[in-house]
């Protein structure tokens, strides 16, 4: 099979897998949140409410598709599609197992950061095109937040890049499976870098405590205020996929990806991704939301300087650490 | 006399505060501020409250609150109903604390008609009022967390836990009155329903559960770093301004003013039960939370004391007043204020008029309305996110503010 055909087939399979994972993820989150809040979560549709995401999608697709008067129709329609494409696009470089990588780019890390960073474009497009003041405020916040948190995200990702000497995600995982996981050793740039990555990833994916652009108690639904039906579903989907992919990249960069004993690599990768995904939910259903200026303060006064220090430390480690410690 | 803009500006300069009466042109000569209609259909306006916010970016420059979207002409309705018919109507005023609405109205009628209330009935009313305060403050804590943390996040976790505990209080009320919410248990001259057998242990059990869980809620709110960041120094209301605007209740006590009608003008059983008034300094959202947590603990103590010291005896006068002909007033006017969970709920009744069985005029002084009147002073300078937090921290109930 040609490389192109192989890529297309692989991409189709990957998208199908991602979307079904998201569906199960939504079910799991609702059950998980229900238990945290001393209630049951979905129970009616299907066994243990397993078909609830399906019912939700059917319900959402039936809704009337409303385009507000005075909206910029082209941008309004384009934004949810772009959001889905960009969030799924990052999944292309995910190293699921030593042999399961859709596109093993040499610069996978750069690709991941670039495409992930593009997510702000559809968000702002939606905020601007909706002709709604709440959406506009949400879009404004999204731009400020995404651009700011891109900096600590890049700095956090640079730490494993420097330590392993590779810009390919698969290369970084391979290095970790040959040596050690970066979250465990070297502890000083490794573990804080993971924490930094995790926080920046929450902010990039608009998750509580950083879900300022959506902020439903302040901005009604932020950028998605005017969206209904299928377009809203796409935004919702994009947000989940973004979180899922972010968790997978965290697992690959800091927890050795497919590396693990006894079980095949794919199992380990999936298990680590889902574990991080659960932590995201856990944080979400526990914490309150920050204010946007406090978010910026946190980013520029704390996370960015810490990130710079970690990158410098990682460079020094590579240069000066004794051979045995690596 | 018409107040000129210069007079108002001078007044505000003297007081060193935001002057909400200045015209928009004074703020925004170029008219480049964004006008945001905040409500009445907004998830965080606690019903149907509306504010017009003039925004510079996300900073509020001027805030104009509008009330009246939930106006149901309760006062007029009360003037057309006989004295004995009115408790179910005012139940719906402050729909988070129906018990205290009934109490305020019934006490005013009793004062107007010169009816004595047996001691047991007064103690029961006090017990109900304190239990209701616990339920109301729990609901406030939950909704405040929703305002800060969103309906799809940590806020809703605290919210649902608070609702779970509030349910225990509603169960107790249901056992006494048969109703979970609109109780209609206050009669002129006493109570309609006596406490059922074995009620005291159930009250104690519910109160211990709530008391043990308050510590958990404190961890999720007062001890939480994000909660502190969002509430400290936000929406500062100084005590002097609060007094000027007639703000009462926890909002006033959070501004450092030691005022509580339960202690300062005792009614019910409060002359026999000593109330420790909880105050806090700062006047911000954090102080208001601290005061309400303190009041939750104090109310638990008072409810325990009330159920333990509950005197025996009749719950109603020799002949219960249930017929319209039994309650007649040809003249007189009274004002009665009680301390509800939200502050001073006053009822002013004028007797007489064409029909002696109905009040000639009835005026309700809702604490929520006065709390909302502070918004134009404390919102400018805050962000849209803060606006939600400040509004939530004042604990307004629109059913009561609009009547």
- Which stretches of chain B are poorly predicted, pLDDT < 50 over at least 5 residues? 6-15
Strand order of the largest sheet of chain A: 1-2
**Per CATH, what is the topology of the largest domain in chain B?**
Cytochrome-c3 Hydrogenase, chain B
C-alpha Rg of chain B, in Å? Answer: 22 Å
Which runs of chain A of at least 5 residues are low in confidence (pLDDT < 50)?
none
User: Number of domains in the coordinates of chain B?
Assistant: 2
Q: Quick one: biggest sheet of chain A?
A: 2 strands, antiparallel
Order of helices and strands of chain A: HHHEEHHHHHHHHH
Count of individual beta strands of chain B: 8
Helix content of chain B: 40-55%
Helical proportion of chain A, percent range: 55-70%
Overall domain count of chain A: 2
Distance between the termini of chain A: 41 Å
Order of helices and strands of chain B: HHEEEHHHHHEEHHHHHHEEEHHHH
> Rg of chain A, please?
20 Å
Strand order of the largest sheet of chain B: 1-2-3
Biggest interface, which chains?
A-B, 30 and 35 residues
